[in-house]
Amino acid sequence: MYIFNTTYHIESDIKEIFIAWLREVYIPTAMHRDELSEPQLCRVIAEEDTGGDNFSLQFHVADPNRLETWYDETGADLDNAIREKFGDRVLGFNTLLEIID
């Protein structure tokens, strides 16, 4: 089992709008297919001032091939939707984590 993590850096003045959009649009769309499960949204605690807010959105995925299928068929469109709606006010990067225990 793996965790597909996306960490977002968000300008503070759009934080609530972005979180609402994740809950109302991104997560339901991502879950429409069966590749991803167990969504979890977390605030990243940073000791230094990053000039905004940081959040992590995580999903469980059975294996990297299923993630690749999801990304090709759904994820790329969601990434484009974020860029179209929020521009450079939201920046994100993906990490795939393998669950050990």
TrEMBL record:
Extract the InterPro entries matched here.
Answer: DUF4286
Give the Pfam families listed for this entry.
DUF4286 (PF14114)
| Name of the molecule in the record | DUF4286 family protein
Q: Which organism is it from?
A: Candidatus Caccoplasma intestinavium
Phylogenetic classification of the source organism: Bacteria, Pseudomonadati, Bacteroidota, Bacteroidia, Bacteroidales
